[in-house]
Amino acid sequence: MGTIFDKILSGDIPSHRVYEDDLVYSFLDINPISRGHTLVIPREAKARVHELSDESCAAIGRALPRICRAVLKATGAVDYNILQNNGAPAHQAVFHVHFHIIPKFADQGLGIGWKAGSLETEDAQTLLAAMHEDLASGG
After folding, report:
1. What is the mean pLDDT of residues 81-102?
2. Distance between CA atoms of 108 and 24, rounded to whole angstroms?
3. pTM, 2 dp
4. Which residue range(s) make up the domain with 16?
5. Catalytic one among 37, 96, 98, 100?
6. Sign (positive/negative) of CA torsion 73, 60, 88, 123?
7. Would you call 38 helix, strand, or coil by DSSP?
8. How does pLDDT run across 17-63, given as a tens digit for each residue?
9. φ, ψ of residue 115 in degrees (nearest 5)
10. How far is C-alpha 54 from the chain's CA centre?
């Protein structure tokens, strides 16, 4: 069936292309939070970041700073957010990995509420042990 991003990648739905290479495609969001709101997607069709190949992730990592610089230059913004959501409870609406570059202006941009907690030493040690084990096994 595919997502709207699959249809954009196939050319079935037009987009305002910002950047593209063999692994990454970037375009202006048609429902922007602020002027210059840009999406960056892998051509690889996966819903969540951890499902992507290392190759796709590396390609996004190379392209993202370049696209950010272009967005800032074009909009005159100095500040911006990069937003990436994984799963419906985390506010993902299109189930194809995508990064939002959202310029922040005084009256436009992403607003975030951040309810910080605290990290207890015992919990940190438990988390680190599990993460280190997974990373050592090849993740």
Report:
1. 97
2. 27
3. 0.91
4. 4-136
5. 98
6. negative
7. strand
8. 999 999 999 999 999 999 999 999 999 999 999 999 999 999 999 99
9. -100, 95
10. 15
Written as six digits, the tokens of 6 are: 């699959």
Q: Which amino acid is at 4?
A: I
For 59-88, how does the pLDDT look when each residue is reduced to its tens digit (9 = 90+)? 999 999 999 999 999 999 999 999 999 999
At 56, list the tokens: 């796709």
| Residue 98 is among the residues annotated as catalytic for this protein | yes
- Would you state the structure tokens that stand for residue 74, as one six-digit string? 């074009």
Half-sphere exposure (Cβ direction) of 74: Cα atoms closer than 13 Å: 16
In total, how many domains does the chain have?
1
**Is-contact 94 4, C-beta < 8 A?**
yes
Q: What is the CATH number of the domain that holds 94?
A: 3.30.428.10
Amino acid letter for position 99: F
Coil, strand, or helix at residue 62? helix
